[in-house]
Amino acid sequence: MNKILQTDGGYSDEHGLPPMSSIKRWLVTTNHKDIGILYIITSLFFLVMGGVLALLIRLQLWLPRAPGEGLLSPFAYNQSVTAHGLIMVFWFLSPFAFGLANYIVPLQIGAKDLAFPRLNALSYWLYLISGILLGTSFFQGGTFDGGWTVYAPLNLPTFTPQVGATSAVLALFIFSVAITSGSVNFLTTIHRMRAKGMTLFNMPLFTWTILLTVWMMLFAFAALLAALMILSADRILGTTYFSSTGTQGSLLWTHLFWFFGHPEVYIVFFPALGAMAEIFQTFTGKRIVGRKWFIAALVLVTVQSFVVWMHHMFLTGINLEVKTLFMITTIGISLPFDLMVFSLIYTLIKGRIQFTTPFLFAFGGLILFIIGGITGVFLGAVVLDYELRGTYWVVAHFHYVMVGGATGLVAGIYYWFPKITGRMYDEFLGKVSFVLYFIGFNLLYFPLFVAWETPRRVFTYAPSLIPWHQMATIGGFILASSFAVMLYNLYVSISHGEESGPSPWKYASTLEWALPSPPPLENWEGTPTYENGKLEFLPDNIKTDGGESTHE
User: Fold this and answer.
1) pTM exceeds 0.85 for this model
2) How many domains does the chain divide into?
3) Backbone torsions φ then ψ of 337, nearest 5 degrees
């Protein structure tokens, strides 16, 4: 049997690993496609976990409750709200995007794996360990209950003394280490392992968004890591960084957290935007209009994302001049987004649209993100922020941006499902899931704009707002049913769907669609190159720079 010298120095047979049905394969694999599947499946588990907590929250809000009434006690409600936010932001959205990126990016750039396969596997296992630690924190006297932003001084043992709260903080710390190691891996891979002749500007847009996402992760998660290290010292070693006299400790945490927290919005949205761009091109048969300007706008947002964090702090004692500056940068970041939105819309106008399930989710995600962006401008204005901060306007806006934008990731899983599995999903069930998703999403979150006077993170509100909250609760269950239909569709299609062939999409033009579905373990028979202006394959024993290959 042929042996192949791998990048980590070990040898494997021609397929390297036990069969996919073997548990051992998933425990020892370092292949980027396997790691991508593990990320996707694990993140979907956390989606269900976070979704169940969300439904409990909505049931508690069916009527305004006095403490002790309803399904949840005040302590259980605070835990549910906190854990729901943490799980969805950290353990679902970013890892789900990482899973797609793990699978697709090496295929799109002509690489046979990520630069550091073992580091890639380590990143996944750290992510899984952190999630398990967060889950077990519920059984250690209760998990952290001070809000997903973990604000000081609520993050200190004085206010959250339970062991589970410390476990949740450590889980966040381990997760941040996992994400940082994954970011280094993607940066090295994309910058150093592209096929010859594939310049940065020629890269597919999904890979572009992943590149900029991991650059943001590298700096944003560094701030979060620092904050979590200090917080862990406060909780375990008894230091007093965040319990400083006055407001100094609270302000220190808030600065560190939001220096991470606002780029995190784009860390979540960029992969979804890249998937949407690929899908728009494929199902309109038209290259993205103004592609270079689209990329320039992505780069500009990446830089600007680090100079807007202080608009989350307008209610603190910052002087008016600084608040005005950050109001300008906040409103200014909408301009490159305007360019990208108009680019996508004009692409639709110029092309011939095929209304497939991936396209419907991508288009729906664009609409939802536009609503989220417009409502965010209100919060960017200092005067309006004083009125709206701490209300359900923030809750509605946040979900329209984060969940609405991430709808593009749902489009991406439908789009690349045939490539990952070699099977087609059921198109009818896919469209049913979209209809349920779009109706449920808007029925859940849009009434919260109307009921904006509801105080955030409490379950008591004015009786006049009851119809809006009951409408939102019904919407929540419709939204949950859409995910149930989607998961059922994908699960059944893995074994019973039609075979897709290399590419079921007529106008798909990126490199991954040149491969069989699913791709072989080492991706390519030969080495892909664009040096002559078109896709060609050189034998494995010849390098494109004339040197000897490491394959034998």
Assistant:
1) yes
2) 1
3) -65, -35
